[in-house]
Inverse folding.
């Protein structure tokens, strides 16, 4: 149904994410990218409905990437995914109108965000 | 050591970095609660190197006098976890934890105990996350404090010689508004590298197969 952008420099982390999607939302399409530049290109291409973004990546980090995406897509459902559960990280995600999903990833943590995202996408479509 | 045992495949390297990153990120979050300041982390580094090389990697710039809180861990794989920083910054770290209202004398009195407790929380947080992700149990020793250069910390002169290869995982951290930066490092020797490779590969296989429930 929806097209999901996954941004994570770790292949393992992308595999874990894809595995969770197979259980929770098997019909959604995943676009995997490994860094901010690839992610921005995918977003600019216009075929992405929502994004799940790792925080700790070489080069541009996940929060900087969310800030870039927000310039062109103020309402796209976006979540930062990280084991770094410090208040500052979660707080900055909130300021950027992004969700926060803790790692290690659980199906529940991901499902809660995706349900909210699906609702928002439905609302903005009508 | 044989050539094969000393090599990690690309996905093993990736998996170890990601799992270590989760462990250290969780541990940094505990440290953040203790110091009340954001803790910044680098991206993780995973290397198979000799103890001698590892010991040089933690001696940054001129900071050869280091202090480390170390804990050994045992389980399906065994090794040593260390929280390392320049000795000159040890009191600043303690001060950031106990609060600025304490006198220098108080801070010096508290140093040993505060370092051991901080190390215990951070290293346990890190290893517990790694153990949970891999679905294994690990036992941790009590923390001990070591002072000296990198060679002293990694027992380059000890029974395990400097030429011995180890799996060395490390991440830099620094406390945003304080002059405190250091490393969280994990060190494992050859039998443990082999055991860890098996566990990591089982974990990777499980991601592909697991029909229900949680994955790391």
């Amino acid at each position: 149904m929806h097209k999901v952008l996954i941004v994570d420099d770790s292949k393992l982390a992308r595999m874990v994410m894809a595995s969770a999607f197979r259980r929770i939302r098997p019909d959604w399409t995943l676009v995997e990218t490994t860094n901010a530049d690839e992610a921005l290109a995918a977003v600019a291409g216009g075929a992405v409905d929502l994004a799940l973004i790792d925080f700790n990546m070489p080069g541009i980090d996940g929060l900087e990437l969310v800030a870039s995406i927000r310039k062109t897509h103020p309402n796209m459902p976006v979540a930062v995914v990280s084991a770094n559960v410090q208040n500052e990280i979660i707080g900055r995600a909130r300021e950027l109108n992004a969700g926060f999903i803790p790692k290690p990833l659980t199906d529940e943590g991901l499902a809660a965000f995706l349900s909210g995202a699906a609702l928002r996408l439905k609302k903005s479509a009508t | 050591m044989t050539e094969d045992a000393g090599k990690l495949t690309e996905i093993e390297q990736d998996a170890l970095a990601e799992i270590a990153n989760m462990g250290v990120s969780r541990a940094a979050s505990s440290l953040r609660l203790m110091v009340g300041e954001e803790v910044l982390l680098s991206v993780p580094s995973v290397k198979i190197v000799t103890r001698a090389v590892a010991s040089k990697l933690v001696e940054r710039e001129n900071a050869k006098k280091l202090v480390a809180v170390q804990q050994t861990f045992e389980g399906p794989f065994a090794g040593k976890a260390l929280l390392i920083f320049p000795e000159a910054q040890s009191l600043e770290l303690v001060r950031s934890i106990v609060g600025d209202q304490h006198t220098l004398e108080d801070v010096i009195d508290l140093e040993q105990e505060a370092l051991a407790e901080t190390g215990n929380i951070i290293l346990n947080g890190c290893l517990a996350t790694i153990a949970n992700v891999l679905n294994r149990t690990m036992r941790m020793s009590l923390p001990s404090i070591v002072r000296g250069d990198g060679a002293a910390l990694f027992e380059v002169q000890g029974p395990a010689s400097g030429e011995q290869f180890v799996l060395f995982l490390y991440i830099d951290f620094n406390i945003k508004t304080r002059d405190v930066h250091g490393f969280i490092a994990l060190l494992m020797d050859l039998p443990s590298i082999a055991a860890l490779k098996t566990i990591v590969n089982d974990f990777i296989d499980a991601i592909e197969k697991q029909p229900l429930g949680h994955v790391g």
About this structure: The domain at 3-125 of chain A is CATH 3.40.50.2300 (Rossmann fold). Chain A has five helices and five strands.
